[in-house]
Amino acid sequence: MSNSKQILSLAKKTIQEESAAINNLSSLLDEDFTNIVECIISTKGRVIVSGIGKSAIVANKIVATLNSTGTPAIFMHAADAIHGDLGTIQKDDVVICISNSGNTPEIKMLVPLIKRANNKLVAMTGKKDSFLGKNADFILNTFVEKEACPNNLAPTTSTTAQMVMGDALAICLLNLKGFDSEDFAKYHPGGALGKKLYLRVADISEKNQKPQIAHDADIREVIVEISKKMLGAAAVIKDNKVVGIITDGDIRRMLNNYDSINGLQAKDIMTKNPKTISANALAVKALKVMQEKGISQLLAVDGEKYSGVVHLHNLINEGIL
């Protein structure tokens, strides 16, 4: 077997083994999962997620997912908890401890302290009969038959299972809370993701120049206006309403179709009833329209009033595409 084939074979084997373990997770779900979701929904406190080693890294990810989907959560390292950070846990908090074995020394020290404070304790473990499993109020069973590691030592499949179980928990909480895209935007105001959820057409078109021309304007005026405003198009206006659009493409077609441009007016070459979009629409909707229609500009309108142009390049620069 060549080195390349061996590498690909091992990679595929790892993915297949982890995939099979994840598929088996759904069969491990029981009434405890429902009780955990209802417990978190009803609590006045937060979700404290703790672990050690690779499970601590998973715990951090689960905390990030919960926070971003409307469930307040805090990470607490299991080792730090028994050396001063136990004060992180407040009266009404629900604690999730992640440990595949459920028997690590730090977990054994931490669990009685949590129970003493009467906080609800959730065990995310691969061994229900472990110290953690036996002492928890609820169990998230993340049992895996073996790790993808050929030595069955490095946490691989087990940590993947923990991540997936955390996602399942977060999504159930999200749905029960009615957490929608507008809520999501509040927690993700930065970056392309946030912009897709809050950036509106007006936010872009207002920054652009506003190319427009009267319907009976001489064609030379049209060319100057399009060139000057540098958006590749101009709105054609009559009686304060948009009646057409002229693009760079229309100008090129005009030069091919007419031997002389003397006497031509905007209305002679414009595209009538152009596609428009509300200035209040999301910018991502403008992108969808452009893609569906195969165009690179859209005229923005506020009611019947022309308010500007949004260009495909604008959306690219904003990270929408």
List the helices and strands and how they pair.
Blueprint: H1 3-28, H2 31-42, E1 47-51, H3 54-68, E2 73-77, H4 78-81, E3 94-98, H5 105-116, E4 120-125, H6 131-135, E5 138-141, H7 157-176, H8 181-187, H9 191-198, H10 201-205, E6 212-214, H11 219-229, E7 233-238, E8 241-247, H12 248-257, H13 266-269, E9 271-272, E10 276-278, H14 283-293, E11 297-302, E12 305-311, H15 312-317
Spell out the key features of this protein.
alpha/beta, 15 helices, elongated, 12 strands
Structure in words:
By secondary structure, the protein is an alpha/beta fold. The protein contains 15 helices and 12 strands. The chain has helices at 3-28, 31-42, 54-68, 78-81, 105-116, 131-135, 157-176, 181-187, 191-198, 201-205, 219-229, 248-257, 266-269, 283-293, 312-317, and strands at residues 47-51, 73-77, 94-98, 120-125, 138-141, 212-214, 233-238, 241-247, 271-272, 276-278, 297-302, 305-311. The strands form 3 sheets. The protein has a 5-stranded parallel sheet with strand order 2-1-3-4-5, with helices on both faces. Strands 6-7-8-9 form a 4-stranded mixed sheet. It is elongated.
Mean pLDDT across residues: 91
Overall number of strands: 12
SSE order, one letter for each helix or strand: HHEHEHEHEHEHHHHEHEEHHEEHEEH
Main beta sheet: 5 strands, parallel
User: Percent of residues in helical segments?
Assistant: 40-55%
Distance between the termini: 43 Å
Strand content: 15-25%
